[in-house]
């Protein structure tokens, strides 16, 4: 329960949840989006739990933050300046699974959730830490995707794309500047 509650509180409203919220408006394949995000959480937090607090010696956090910031900013710029044609639905994600994985993977590497997972694993049984962390992240991700789907049904697609682009750029900048 300690990892579940700790991560639930720490991750609520975090950038990965915001990204999933925004991506969910671009696809109807929400299960694939969630599956990609879940796999990314499993990899990132699984590595943290296995490595404990030594993870920062393996991959420099600044390098990962910069890469994540660049990815988020690039996605935001694309959303702002690429308006889909009316005849063709180009606003859909080509691969919701890959998009969910990539955005979640890059946004969570070196994040407080990953560090907390590693630290919790130094005190508790790693399997239970991983179970609690993943249950918490899956719940939050599901809520983010459902909320994004709900909003998308009520907001014009072009407006949502502009808002998404701006938010992704802001997230990218916050990653880069730390």
Structural overview:
With about 180 residues, this protein is mainly alpha-helical. It has one domain (about 1-70, about 95-155). About 80% of the residues lie in helices and about 0% in strands. It has helices at about 1-10, 15-25, 30-50, 55-60, 60-80, 95-110, 110-120, 125-150, 155-175. Helix 3 (about 30-50) packs parallel to helix 6 (about 95-110), helix 3 (about 30-50) crosses helix 7 (about 110-120) and helix 5 (about 60-80) runs antiparallel to helix 9. The two termini are about 30 Å apart. Mean pLDDT is about 80; it is low at about 85-90.
Query: How many E-type strands?
Result: 0
Q: Return residue spans where pLDDT drops below 50 for at least 5 consecutive residues.
A: 86-91
State the helix count.
Answer: 9
Q: What is the share of helical residues?
A: over 70%
Order of helices and strands: HHHHHHHHH
**How many domain modules?**
1
Q: Could you say which overall geometry the principal axes of the C-alpha atoms support?
A: globular
The main pleated sheet reads as: none
Class per helix and strand makeup: mainly alpha
In whole angstroms, how far apart are the ends?
A: 30 Å
β-strand amount: under 5%
Average pLDDT rating: 78
Rg: 16 Å
